[in-house]
Amino acid sequence: MNPRNKKQRVRVRLALAAAILIPALAAAPAMAHDALESTVPGKDTTVTTAPGTVSLTLSEPPMNATQLNLSVITVTDETGKTLSDGKVTVDGPTISTAISAGNNGAYKVLWRTVSSDGHPIEGNYSFTVQDPAQAATATPPATPAPAVGTASSAAAPAAQTAPDQIKPNDDNAPIAVGIAAAILAVAAAVFFIARKRREKTSGA
Description:
The protein is α+β, with helices and mostly antiparallel strands. The protein has helices at residues 3-32, 132-138, 148-160, 173-203, and strands spanning 36-40, 46-47, 53-58, 72-76, 89-91, 94-98, 105-114, 120-129. Helix content is 40%, strand content 23%. The termini are far apart.
């Protein structure tokens, strides 16, 4: 065999081996990362009661170092209020946190942890809470409109209690009549006396 051809074959084999091994080695760390497998409550689900705990289960147990706070879960309700207490429990591949009840609507979950291979992983998802009891409490009772008949009957007494018309004061009427009669009597007497004097003058 020609030594030159032999060297060329060796080079080709090395090139093929490198083409196969290099992508595989580059992808190995990425394939080793843990992945989120399930959540409670489930992603994009609707529950009728606000949960007391939110849990996430990974493909492998994450690194657990409580003093370093390697795992973080933050839960907020539709108003943006933080419901999680900031404490995360690691139990095998499951991480969880306790939450308080919030308003009805969409709850958003933000999480971060360190996978078993030492690489940080994170993500987010949401679920919806529709608690009928909470919805009933939030709805104010309807105020009944006043009846037309009631308004009319209430207006009637108001009309009846209108002030009476002012009547003229007749207390001085008898005095006025007496004065008028006296004036007429004096006038009649003067007229009578004058007439008598005229008759006497004519007879003389």
